[in-house]
Amino acid sequence: MDTQKLRQRILDLAIRGKLVPQDPNDEPASVLLDRIRAEKERLIAEGKIKRPKSKKSTDKSHYQHFTPPFEIPDSWEWVRLEDIAYVASGSTPSKESFVPNGIPYLKMYNLRKQRIDFQYQPQYISEEVHNGKLSRSRATAGDIIMNIVGPPLGKIAIIPTSFKECNFNQAAVMIRPFYMKDILAEYLFNYLEEMTEINCISTKGTAGQVNISLTQAQNMRISLPPIGEIIRINEIVRQYRGIFETLESSYNELTESIAKTKSKILDLAMQGKLVPQDPADEPAADMLLRINPKAKIITDNPHYPQLPDNWVLTRIKDVFEINPKNKAADNIQAGFVPMALIHDGYSDKFHYDVRQWGEIKSGFTHFADGDIAVAKISPCLENRKSMILRDLPNGIGAGTTELLIFRSTILIPEFSLLFFKSYNFIKCCTGTFNGVVGQQRVGKSIVEDIHIPIPPLNTQRAIVQRVQDWFDCFDNIFAGISNERDSLI
After folding, report:
1. To 10 degrees, what angle do helices 181-193 and 3-15 make?
2. What are phi and psi of 184, to 5 degrees?
3. Does the model's pTM come out above 0.70?
4. What pLDDT does 55 receive?
5. How distant, in Å, are the alpha carbons of 309, 407, 423, 454 from that of 297?
6. pLDDT at 255 over 90
7. Which pLDDT does position 5 carry in this prediction?
8. CB–CB of 234/186 below 8 Å?
9. 78, 64 in Cβ contact below 8 A?
10. What pLDDT is attached to residue 437?
11. Radius of gyration (Cα) for the chain, nearest Å?
12. Within 13 Å and on the Cβ side, how many CA atoms surround 423?
């Protein structure tokens, strides 16, 4: 179930006047607007806010100078955001403005899941700068912060009561209702999170950026209900949010629990504890040395201290050919696999685009049917982006250079993939990452010396089948609970 789509649908109904019944006893929104205008004039007269440029008063004349994007009930009103709220842009302090403790300074990475998360990389500015050079972007509890530089747009949060005062950077605007701040802020938060108006006014900049200017933010079209209906809308949306958060939390807990159990199953499989051992099987050491007489047998390893007697421990490079090359005519078709087409987790799914081999043979990683592909870059490696290559056009392909390819004549592909998805393999890789943050990866020279447990051939097949049975069982449980959750809403 996609709770986000359902959330958007509820917000869409809310801003169109279709979420709660209309009450003919409500004062119309025009009465609310009169009170908002009076409060705005008072704030202007007291010098607390400035009158918008080119507007001599806060009369009704300029409210209708736009095309409404949808129909609303007769008791509602169309307004611009600046008609009902103070809208200000953020500021950029100098490096000298930052202090160890002072006024919290919000950046866009502090807007997470539509809340303020100041535990993540907190920064502070001095009170002098907050009240001086950055005074226009002073914010308080109950104000709305909305990002205006994306992608993505639509990061919105209401500043919590734990913040007495704060400031924010230039990639956002602050929205502070003139009247009945808490009630109107909650409604505006819901309105903007619905995204229709944000998507209508956003403009594309350079390098894929999407932006909203301060003027565009101030002129956003807002459908304003009567105050009584605003209160009812806020309450209903709040109830739905609670339901969604409960569902998502339970769903995430189940997902995490199943992932941990699958990891444990692979752990047991790689230690020889998942299936019974057959003493009649050819010992893995004999099989290994028969196929690769130069293979190094490892006798001491903390990751696999008590393997069954007929298993053997060796190095990855003694079992696999790593990053083999294809030889094929330029004009034949092949599969092309970017990282985005590889599923993560414990699945074995991927997709490919069909290309001419001559187009992709240079500058990309080669592979063929039966090979194992494993992401070498973080976080794709930790997220288990790995799979067995199957059913490629003409049996060959190429893909992102952030893959390591493994080909073996000793291990069956299905068992190999279980090893590459196991916790011990990933832990050995992540402990040796190199590169800058965001571009960290494990090198081929590191991976080829990682130790791998080898069971007899028949045991490999038995392990693969047992793991598949367990994984199918968990996936069926997960699917059943997902379907039940869908039916609830």
Report:
1. 120
2. -70, -35
3. no
4. 54
5. 13, 19, 22, 10
6. no
7. 80
8. yes
9. yes
10. 62
11. 30
12. 14
Continuous segment of H or E residues that includes residue 239:
helix 227-270
489 pLDDT exceeds 70? no
- C-alpha to C-alpha distance for 350 and 338, rounded to whole angstroms: 10
What is d(CA 167, CA 114) in angstroms, rounded to the nearest whole number? Answer: 17
Is residue 293 predicted with pLDDT exceeding 90? yes
pLDDT at position 484, please?
Answer: 53
Tell me how far apart the alpha carbons of residues 164 and 168 are, in angstroms, rounded to a whole number.
14
User: In 113-251, at which residue ranges do the beta strands (DSSP E only) sit?
Assistant: 115-116, 124-125, 139-140, 144-147, 149-150, 156-158, 165-168, 172-177, 203-204, 210-211, 221-224
In this structure, are strands 365-368 and 372-375 parallel, antiparallel, or unpaired? Answer: unpaired
Determine the Cα–Cα distance for residues 43 and 37; give it in Å rounded to an integer: 10
The predicted pLDDT at position 324 comes to 95
State how far the alpha carbon of 159 is from the alpha carbons of 62, 101, 138, 162, 194, in Å: 30, 19, 12, 8, 19
Give the whole-angstrom CA distance, residue 109 versus residue 372: 36
Query: Predicted confidence band at 483 (pLDDT cuts at 50, 70, 90)?
Result: low
Render pLDDT for 399-419 as a digit per residue (tens, 0 to 9): 999 999 999 989 999 999 999
How is residue 318 written in tokens? 């003694």
Type of residue at 373: A
Is 373:367 a contact under the CB 8 Å cutoff? yes
User: Which whole number is the average pLDDT over 332-350?
Assistant: 95
219 Cβ contact list (under 8 Å, min separation 6)? 66, 80, 81, 82, 201
- DSSP states of 347-404: ---B--EEEEHHHHSSSSEEEETT-EEEE-BTTTTTTT-EEE--S-GGGEEEE-TTEE
Question: Are 411 and 284 within 8 A, CB to CB?
Answer: no
d(CA 351, CA 166): 47
Q: List, in sequence order, every residue forming a beta bridge with 399; answer none if it has no partner.
A: 337, 365
Q: Give the contacts of 407 (CB within 8 A, at least 6 positions apart).
A: 320, 321, 322, 324, 368, 370, 371, 372
What one-character-per-residue DSSP string does 107-122 give? -GGGEETTEE-TTSS-
